[in-house]
Amino acid sequence: MPRSGEEARRRLQQAALELYAERGFDRTTTAEIAARAGVTERTFFRHFPDKREVLFGSEATLRADLTRSVAAAPEGLSPLEVLLHAFRKAGHILEGNRPFAEPRLAVIAATPALRERDLAKAAAMADALAAALRARGVGDRLAGLAAQVGWVAFHHAVGAWIADSGRSLDEHLDEAFAELRTLAVEMG
Amino acid sequence: MPRSGEEARRRLQQAALELYAERGFDRTTTAEIAARAGVTERTFFRHFPDKREVLFGSEATLRADLTRSVAAAPEGLSPLEVLLHAFRKAGHILEGNRPFAEPRLAVIAATPALRERDLAKAAAMADALAAALRARGVGDRLAGLAAQVGWVAFHHAVGAWIADSGRSLDEHLDEAFAELRTLAVEMG
DNA sequence: CCGGTAGTGTCAGTCGCTGTCACTAAGGCT
DNA sequence: AGCCTTAGTGACAGCGACTGACACTACCGG
Where in this chain does the record put each HTH tetR-type domain (chains A, B) (predicted)? Predict the structure, then answer.
């Protein structure tokens, strides 16, 4: 029953998220995911390289958004200001997807294997941000450091926003970057 | 031929590093590692939970060293200064182990699966550093941010030191933290 | 000398993942 | 309409990572 291919892919993602949330990542087999999606195990591995990657399908678009925002940031901003600018734009998208993203984050937080993959995606994101900064003329080494530090602050802000949804993500972002500044200035 | 247990463990680590370097991580089986170490595949998994962990046996002692140094740092220092203090001490140990650590880092850099595990270890290290900072009275959220940012700077310094061994790790550490300060101050 | 214990070998089995081949639905071409 | 290409799939066989269970043996203290 091959329909569009893209449809099977979405069903597999949905089925995987459900099963990971119900029984846990370790207690669900790829065959079960495929069965719930109405396809074969083999088809699962045609759409996703492994059992973890099925939860990380939207990272590529986020990366594209962020790098585009970095490129489109106004002239004359410092590297971290450029990143803050990009994070604000990406954050707005994230705020909309929250009901879908929340169970996903819960499953990832509860599964070491998925946390590893998540960290790898974060590292790739930081690399992409560093490349985007370099394209703006930021020094080679400095771009790498700025991208990683900026990403840490972003991640921190998202975590705070998850815990305290009362305030907007933008507020948490500003606060995280302010804390970053405080930390650095305190150094002799 | 059960001798000391600890001896088999060391032989397994050695054999694994050699084989990973020779054929690559993906092209070596756990059975081959066990064979070169003179034990059975089952024994490999008694000493290490999986094929990757065999390269990460010394992370626990590094973590212990770092957290101890954080606790022993002088009073009155800012969070990042405390971390810089701890990194200097750990760095001296690292400078001694270099001939052993270098092939290990090369293998990790060449293998995505091992990079994932490495990132997970780094995250655990940052968590431990954050806890050590909290024990010194640093605020809860700030400790987490400082630990991650500090670790990024440390990692950056180590990378620069690997590429440019002419200068000491301490110099690279100072430079990384100075760059960090510059980045933060540039922000409006 | 003996009993406990820790480290190991052996075997069987599950599951993640891959290569291969045949099949079928969908869309474009004449 | 009939055909042909192509993408998506099912079925099958197989490797390798990892686990549970059981038996065995070197060691260590009494």
Answer: 6-66
How much is the average pLDDT of B29-42?
A: 98
- Residues B18 and B104 reside in one and the same domain: no
Query: Which CATH number characterizes residue A19's domain?
Result: 1.10.10.60
Q: What does strand D contact on the protein, if contact means CB under 7 A?
A: A 1-6, 8, 38-40, 42-43, 46-47; B 1-3, 28-31, 41-42, 45, 49-52
Number of domains making up chain A: 2
Asked if residue B91 and residue B27 are part of one domain, the reply reads no
**Three-state secondary structure readout of B26-68:** CCCCHHHHHHHHCCCHHHHHHHCCCCCHHHCCCHHHHHHHHHH
Question: B69 and B155 share a domain?
Answer: yes
Q: What is the sign of the dihedral through the CA atoms of A131, A137, A140 and A145?
A: negative
Which tens digits make up the pLDDT trace of B68-102? Answer: 999 999 999 999 999 999 999 998 888 888 888 88
Q: What is the rounded CA–CA span in Å between residue A15 and residue A21?
A: 10
pLDDT tens digits, residue range B144-168?
A: 999 999 999 999 999 999 889 899 9
Q: Do A116 and B116 touch (CB under 8 A)?
A: yes
Return the number of other C-beta atoms located less than 10 Å from residue B143's C-beta: 20
Same domain, A99 and A149: yes
Domain range for B18: 5-54
Residues of B in contact with A146 (CB under 8 A): 183
CA quadruple A164, A170, A175, A177: dihedral, nearest 10: 130
Tokens describing residue B166: 């002419």
Mean pLDDT within B55-59? 93
Does residue B88 sit in the same domain as residue B152?
A: yes
pLDDT at B2: 44
Which of B50, B129, B145, B164 to substitute to test the interface with A, most A CBs within 10 Å? Answer: B145
What is the least distance, in Å, from the CA of B94 to any CA of chain A?
A: 21
- Cα–Cα nearest to A87, from A134, A137, A136, A156: A156
Which position has the token pair 């940031």?
A73
Closest residue in A to B83 (Cα) is: A187
